[in-house]
Amino acid sequence: MPAGGVRRGALGAPEPGGRGDDHLRHRAGDSTTFVNRAFRPTLSFVHTGLAAPGPVRLAAPPEGPRAAGKRATEGSTHVRVACVQMNSRSDKAENVATAVRLVRRAAAAGARLVVLPETWAFKGGRSESIAAAEPLDGPSNGVLAALAAELGVYVLAGSIYEARPGQGLPSNASVLFDPRGAALAVYRKVHLFDAVAGERVYRESDDLTAGADLVTATVDDIAVGLTICYDLRFPELYRALAVRGARVLLVPSAFTEATGRDHWEVLLRARAVENGCFVVAAGQWGEYADGRPSHGRSMIVDPWGVVLAVAPDGVGLCEADLDLGAVGRVREQLPVLAHRRPDLYRAWD
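Given the sequence above, the corresponding structure tokens read:
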């Protein structure tokens, strides 16, 4: 370990495990997070045409100054991102109010992209959650769309249960809003959580319909890939997003405490390293229906697997500045995408 007690990765950024001069103890939202100082940025997104829903669009707001989030200059490869960590429960109004407060704080701190967790607007028991389902242009997402337009930032509305009248069970759907409140892309969770975590059995497929689309969106010439929670355990999905061009992978989640304490950070860092991508993962924290605990520890990871920021237990934010040039540097040093052998993989499948 070098003098000063701070381990450094190949990108020159301090690695977790120390609290040296390159780490800033930063008060953000309702909780404190440790942020890596070595990265500094800004961001901006455009519509990709990938699965974007027609109805989820607000009228353009009046022209005028926007509150926060510096627009990236031409040729810039930097972006500041923030993860909102929530403890959503069955009071939808309270959840929405909490989200609004934290998105405002993230924007005021300079975030251009703000990522909310899975099921951010409502988290309850099975029957309650189904009853609380909304269309993608419903009141909860409508609040975030309007807020994105007011603040001039991009907001990933982690996910809600999407009501689909006449089309069977709801889906678990994430919407990315641009600074005018328009929906750039919609991703419906592909892998449903049918598993045992601790002593609890989860059967998402009993209540939800799985999605079937690979979804990316473009952010100032920066491709981002959309995923949700349990998807994290399927490296094929993340590899497909990276091959499509994604340099930032978004992972709104509600990981269980039973699995998260051992797997969450390992999986996030693995997805970052194996694809040479940044990973931005906003999580639910704390207990909700019937005392079920979510793991929290929202996290931002760089392409070398270094954790840039992590939220401690509690409701709040973590944020980091991403140098997108790091993606190219890592992929040049470790050209795993170029070395793939898909011809063999197909034969082995």
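The chain has seven helices and 18 strands. Try to locate this feature in the token string yourself.
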